[in-house]
Structures are given as structure tokens and as C-alpha cells.
Design brief:
The complex is a heterodimer of chains A (290) and B (323). With 290 residues, chain A is mainly α. Chain A is built from eleven helices and two strands; from the N terminus they run ααααββααααααα. The longest helix of chain B is centred in the N-terminal third of the chain and has 27 residues. Classes of the chains: A mainly alpha (290), B mainly alpha (323).
């Protein structure tokens, strides 16, 4: 029983973690907490849905097409909405992304309507299997495996590719990065593209488990932020663990403490954690110049 | 902060006579509407006044002290429910129930501010977001007291045996509360507290060096802001007389923030303009489900990118050109 709850928690937690990672990729590079991440992912997931159902394309075409769309979406948002705000106080960018969130939500409602759609899972036909005596659904397994793979992939990109190293340099010191011949603007665009891609992967994973409609990412975005804050925002690994922790705690509290208070309890927990450790569990406080 | 405009520059620039004339004209307009105006217009005016109070409270917090809140729907719902329950269960008159609800929210606001002292920016945003969610959930689940998801009927407010549910009588109450709230906010902003808060917003370290008690002023800002928002919530409950936790969600907290950004952060006029925008846009676009969200979203992006002073700065620019 408890093992199943933990597995379920890990599955939903890895979704939170993916959204959290999408947010932190952008946050670390550009200092902007992207509150539009949820609806950007929702929008791209709907694009995948249209490709799958209206145009009847196979997953092998839809997946790369959707990832490309997500990357493009990230770059467009960065260039059009965020770039003009470079140098302005961060709260302006926060407000702009909140606005983008609302606008995308409405536009998606206009294009795809407000009804709930069924999004077929790519592993829907596989049976539930047993792992060490615990029932695991293929959807949960896929979610966990893919999110771990994404964390490793992004960490490798950031550590070992030219573009990734340039991105880290640009996020540490824009002036010096420019002097080293790095295009800061292109690096930030890359961060947004990566964030957007991580987001749509979360969207594609959650749509078959829950449902597909314009509201699907609202709660997930908040959980993603909460998990990221819990983990401390400073490393992808920490954020990943924070997301998983939130998912597991939420599932266990929902089962053992109170079904209806599960969500509220996890937020209480986050508030308590923030009081004790204001920069999250694995976070390092960035020194601030005044 | 978002605007970096000086909080009371507009008021300071306008001559006292002009300000007085403007206030008199506004008061006359409200009075005329309350006496002769028809139902729908009065309804929109009432809501604008109520959300104007919220906007002023939030501006005091975000525009002056530089702390962000994504949980103000929580204070609004506490005000609405506390005032409704005080009236319903204890039979208190509304003019006692609403301030008491405000006091309750002030205490809660101060308690929230204590952990918030250690948090900044995104962490504070998430903590306040959590507060809003927890509050909404508690109202949903505490069915014995709040009626849960079925909502709560609020007894019609009366004054000297006169039912305020009739016609435009609530408008007087709301106008009086708004006037008192505006007066209080202006006093606060121009006085010692306002200057301390503005200093705090620009640099906490500098404020601390000048002997400003950073922690105390942060708590004060949170508490005052909670009071304004809860009083507005109480007025709202007494105006619509049916409240449901459904509407007091995260979206509402974000809309509150949108309201003061679009109106113009850090000025009372901007707060009122933002409240008017918040009420009128969805009302005029009633038929189109997704249109208000699109307009709010685009307006938010446009304001921060192209018009950092919000709607209020449009008027200010015109006034400067005329002068």
C-alpha cells in the first residue's frame, strides 16, 4: 500500500519536477521566474493533440514537431516579451509572464474550445507491471524514466556543450560574457527554448494521465513552482528532488492525514520549510549587491 | 519596483485647489448616481469602489514596501466570510462586523508577515500563493462554519432599521469607506511610515542604516494591506449577499496584482483606475468567455513593456502637457 502511494507520488512528483526544471532553466539563466510556463506547455500540448488527431500523424513525427514548436515558442516569447524588459526590475518580467499566461489561456480557449479532450497515451496498451512486488502503471514508469532522462540531458548540455557553457557564463556575468564573445541574447533564447521544451514534455506526459483541456496546467504550474522552491532553485538536481518530495508527501498526506486537505497541507509544509530554510532545502543564497 | 515613479508626485504636482475641485466633482458624481442612477450602473460603480479599496491596500504593500503578494484573495475572502458570519451568527450590524473582520485579517496579515520577513521575491510569492490556497481550502472544508462549497447567504445589511439592500443605498457605504480608505492611505503615504516604506523598497540595507526598523515596517505594510483588502471583502459580501469560496481563487489574487499594475503602481489614482478597468472590462465583454482574459493578459504585457506608469501615467502626461 505505502509503496504504491510512493510510486504514485514519484510519478506526479516527477511531473512537478519537470515543470520546476523548466522554470529553473529560465530562472537561473535570466533571473526571470516564468509564470507563463504552464500555459506555454499547455499550448504546445494542444498543438501535439491537433497533429495527432486532426492530421492523424504518428508519434514519431509528432514528438519532434512538438519539441521544435516548443523551442520556437520559447524563443519567440523571450524575444518579444522578455527581451524588452532586460535591465528593468524583475517584478516587471514576473507581471509580463503572468499576463502572457492569461493571454495564452484565452487564445487556447478560443482555438480549441473549453471542453475536455482525451489524449491517448503512447504506452496506453501496455499492461500494469510489477516491480519488486509493487504495481506500477506504464504511464507512471514512463513519466519517471523520462523526467530522470531530461534532468541528465539538461545537466549534460549545460556542463559539456559550448552553448551550455556560454549560457552559464552569460547567466553569471553578462558583461564579462559579452567581452568573451558570447551572444548573451542568443544564450538567453536558448534557455527559454530549453525551458519551453521541458515544459511541453511535462504537458505530453500529464495529458494522458489526467485529461487535456485549457485548465490542465494551472495546478501543475503552482506545484512545479512549489517543488522548485522547496528544492531550492539553485541546481537542477535539487529542484528535481524537491518536486519528487512534494509529490510523495502530497500523496502520503492525502492518504493518511486528510484526503481533502492534501494539497493545502503540502503548502503548509512548504511555508514551514521556507521559514526554517528561506532558500529551500538544497538552495544556496545568492549574495546580493545593494 | 515596477514603476519607480514617485508615489505622490502626481498629487504633489497638482495644485491643492485642483485636487479639491476634483474630489468635489467625484463626490457629487457619486452622490448623483446613488440618488438617481439606475441598477446596472450602480452595480458597476459599487464593485469599482470595493476593488478600489483592494487596489489601494495592495499598492501600499507592493508599490510602497516592495513586497509581492499572490495571496490577497485570501484576505479578501477572510473579510467576506468573517463579516458575514459575525452578522449571521452573532447578529452584529454590518458597520461593526466589517471593521471587526478587518481587524481579524490585520492580525492574520501580521502573522503572515512574520515568516515573510525572511523571504524575498519568488520565495515570498510562493509563500503568499500558498497562503491564498490554504485559506480557500479551509473555507471549502470548514463546512459547519462556512457552508463549504454550497456558499453562504449574507443577511441584508441595515442601518437604523433601513435596509441597505434597496436601490443604491450600499453605494453610500462603499463611497464612505473608499473616501476614508483613500484619506488614510494618503496620510500614511505622506507621513513617516510612507517615507520609511519607500526607502525600504529602494534599498533595505540603506533603510536599515538610516535607523528604519525594517522588520516592523514590513509587518505594518502587510497588516495594513490585509485590513484594506478584508474591509473590501466585507463590503463585497454585504453587497452581493451570497459568497462562495470558488471565486476566491489564485486567479483572483493574480487579477488583484494585474489591477494595480495596469492602473499604475504606487499611486492612489492608479489604484482606482485599475479597479475600474478590472470591473468594467469583463462586464462589457460578458458574451465572450475568453475575451477578458486575453485583454487583461495583453494589457499586462503592454503596460510593463511600453507604459510602466500604467493607465494613470496617461492622464498624468496629459495634465503635464496642458500645464
Amino acid at each position: 500500500m505505502i509503496a504504491e502511494l510512493v510510486i504514485g507520488g514519484l510519478a506526479s512528483g516527477s511531473l512537478y519536477a519537470l515543470i520546476g526544471i523548466a522554470i529553473v532553466l529560465v530562472l537561473q539563466a535570466t533571473d526571470v521566474p516564468n509564470f507563463a510556463q504552464g500555459e506555454m506547455a499547455m499550448f504546445a500540448t494542444f498543438v501535439a493533440f491537433s497533429l495527432l488527431t486532426t492530421y492523424k500523424l504518428s508519434w514519431w513525427i509528432v514528438l519532434p514537431a512538438t519539441l521544435a514548436f516548443a523551442a520556437l515558442q520559447g524563443v519567440v516569447v523571450q524575444q518579444v516579451v522578455i527581451r524588452p524588459l532586460l535591465g528593468a526590475p524583475i517584478i516587471n518580467a514576473v507581471i509580463a509572464t503572468l499576463g502572457l499566461n492569461m493571454a495564452l489561456h484565452s487564445v487556447a480557449g478560443m482555438i480549441w474550445g473549453n471542453q475536455t479532450n482525451v489524449f491517448a497515451s503512447p504506452v496506453g496498451e501496455l499492461p500494469v507491471f510489477k516491480l519488486f512486488g509493487v504495481n506500477v502503471s506504464p504511464d507512471s514508469a514512463l513519466t519517471i524514466v523520462i523526467s530522470v532522462a531530461m534532468v541528465i540531458l539538461f545537466t549534460l548540455v549545460l556542463r559539456h556543450t559550448r552553448a551550455g557553457i556560454a549560457l552559464r557564463a552569460a547567466s553569471q556575468n553578462q558583461q564579462v560574457a559579452k567581452l568573451m564573445g558570447i551572444s548573451v541574447n542568443r544564450s538567453f533564447a536558448l534557455a527559454w527554448a530549453m525551458g519551453s521544451m521541458a515544459g511541453v514534455v511535462a504537458g505530453l506526459l500529464v495529458a494522458p494521465i489526467l485529461f487535456l483541456d485549457v485548465n490542465m496546467m494551472g495546478a501543475l504550474l503552482i506545484k512545479g513552482f512549489a517543488g522548485a522552491v522547496l528544492g531550492g532553485l539553485s541546481s537542477l538536481g535539487g529542484v528535481f528532488v524537491g518536486g519528487l518530495l512534494l509529490g510523495v508527501v502530497e500523496n502520503l498526506m492525502g492518504a493518511y492525514v486528510s484526503g481533502s486537505f492534501g494539497e493545502a497541507l503540502s503548502f503548509l509544509l512548504i511555508i514551514v520549510v521556507l521559514i526554517v530554510a528561506p532558500a529551500g532545502i538544497f538552495g544556496r543564497v545568492k549574495s546580493q549587491k545593494f | 519596483m515596477a514603476t519607480r515613479s514617485h508615489p505622490h508626485s502626481a498629487a504633489a504636482r497638482a495644485s491643492p485647489l485642483r485636487t479639491q475641485l476634483l474630489v468635489a466633482a467625484l463626490a457629487a458624481g457619486v452622490a448623483a448616481t446613488a440618488l438617481f442612477g439606475g441598477g446596472y450602473f450602480v452595480y458597476v460603480l459599487n464593485l469599482t469602489g470595493i476593488f478600489g479599496l483592494v487596489a489601494i491596500g495592495l499598492t501600499l504593500l507592493i508599490g510602497f514596501s516592495g513586497q509581492i503578494s499572490l495571496g490577497h484573495a485570501g484576505f479578501f475572502s477572510i473579510g467576506a466570510y468573517a463579516s458575514a458570519l459575525l452578522a449571521q451568527r452573532l447578529g452584529l450590524p454590518f458597520w461593526l462586523a466589517i471593521p471587526l473582520a478587518g481587524v481579524l485579517a490585520t492580525v492574520i496579515g501580521a502573522l503572515i508577515a512574520l515568516p515573510a520577513l525572511r523571504l524575498k521575491n519568488l520565495y515570498l510569492a510562493i509563500a503568499t500563493l500558498g497562503f491564498g490556497i490554504v485559506t480557500q481550502k479551509m473555507i471549502f472544508e470548514w463546512r459547519a462554519l462556512t457552508g463549504g462549497g454550497a456558499g453562504l447567504q449574507v443577511p441584508p445589511p441595515t442601518l437604523f432599521g433601513l435596509s441597505l439592500a434597496d436601490g443604491a443605498r450600499m453605494t453610500w457605504v462603499i463611497a464612505a469607506a473608499l473616501a476614508a480608505g483613500t484619506w488614510g492611505a494618503v496620510r500614511l503615504a505622506r507621513g513617516r511610515t510612507g517615507r520609511a516604506l519607500a526607502m525600504l523598497r529602494d534599498s533595505e540595507a540603506a533603510a536599515g542604516c538610516l535607523g528604519i526598523h525594517v522588520a516592523r515596517y514590513k509587518v505594518v505594510a502587510f497588516a495594513v494591506s490585509a485590513f484594506y483588502t478584508a474591509v473590501a471583502g466585507g463590503l463585497y459580501a454585504n453587497l452581493v449577499r451570497y459568497i462562495n469560496p470558488e471565486s476566491f481563487n489564485v486567479g483572483m489574487s493574480i487579477m488583484f496584482l494585474a489591477m494595480i499594475v495596469i492602473g499604475g503602481m504606487g499611486s492612489i489614482g492608479g489604484a482606482l483606475l485599475g479597479a475600474a478597468f478590472y470591473v468594467i472590462v469583463p462586464e462589457t465583454l460578458r458574451g465572450f468567455k475568453d475575451a477578458p482574459g486575453l485583454i487583461f493578459g495583453l494589457a499586462l504585457m503592454l503596460v510593463v513593456i511600453a507604459l510602466p506608469g500604467g493607465l494613470a501615467s496617461l492622464f498624468r502626461r496629459r495634465a503635464r502637457a496642458a500645464a
